[in-house]
Amino acid sequence: MYLHPGITLRMSTKRKSYPSDVSDEEWAFCVRYLALMTEQAPPRVHPLREMFNALRYQIRVGGAWRMMPHDLPPWHLVYQQAQRWIRAGCFEAMAHDLRAILRMALERKADPSAVILDSRTIQSTPESGARAGFDGHKKRKGSKVHAAVDTLGHLLALAVTPANEQDRAQVGQLAQAVQVVVEEPVQIAFVDQGYMGDKPAEAAAQEGIQLQVVKHHEAKHGFVLLPRRWVVERSFAWAARFRRLARDYERLPATLAGYHWLAFVTLMLGALFIKS
């Protein structure tokens, strides 16, 4: 594997590490996805690993960009590099490969045969308010993050819309995105009652997926754990640990989606390379 002179596999000893920093094993896996440069590119002023560490710190802690700690690279350089990674689809590529590795480690097929679809509404901020919508059910103005996860909770597809968009209207887009990233087609998608109707079922069927609605119990008392449905709720709870994703702080929906992909990459790296 070729490594540019500006890329190192070892941790810099010039500062104390943060809990969000990548380990040597994690960086050895990530570097091949993040090195968007040619052999003719000039040497980097800041190591690529430190740029990645700074971005991971930002989505985990959730502070303002201009409040980036001084022992990390300048915030505007980290932001620019993050946009390059998002546009190149680096985090999606990492997530898909990590998902396959983790599934095979559990003696499962690399590609799932079933997925779970759902969405969560994120409160808007002044930065994202211009594209926000009002979710009448949640009584909240913001953005909706629509996700498709496998039965282990790993992300396969994601879309960001204004919060007033209906969940059922995104079934076709999510189903198509799911089938694109797998070799063996997904056969079934579990959803909640917000996806009921002929149109979402037809949109899923066009992609070869059967939509199965998991309904609430008729006599519901308190919290009820719904079959399959709890998996995607747990995935959203995992994402909520990243403070940058607690609200929609981004001007662009693609940035919000990219940070969700990075959050799940971080979670899967932690599962693959368990830190002692």
Structure description:
This protein has helices spanning 24-34, 48-61, 75-88, 90-105, 171-180, 198-206, 229-240, 253-272, and strands at 114-123, 133-135, 140-150, 155-162, 188-191, 210-213. α2 (48-61) crosses α3 (75-88), α4 packs parallel to α8 (253-272) and α5 (171-180) runs parallel beside α6 (198-206). It folds into two domains: 24-88, no CATH class; 111-217 and 224-245, Nucleotidyltransferase, domain 5 (2-Layer Sandwich), CATH 3.30.420. A hairpin with a 4-residue loop joins β3 (140-150) and β4. The model has no long low-confidence stretch (mean pLDDT 89). It is globular and about 60 Å long. The longest helix has 20 residues, at 253-272. Helix content is 38%, strand content 14%. The chain is built from eight helices and six strands; from the N terminus they run ααααββββαβαβαα. The protein has 276 residues and is of the alpha/beta class. Strands 1, 2, 3, 4, 5 and 6 form a six-stranded mixed beta sheet that branches.
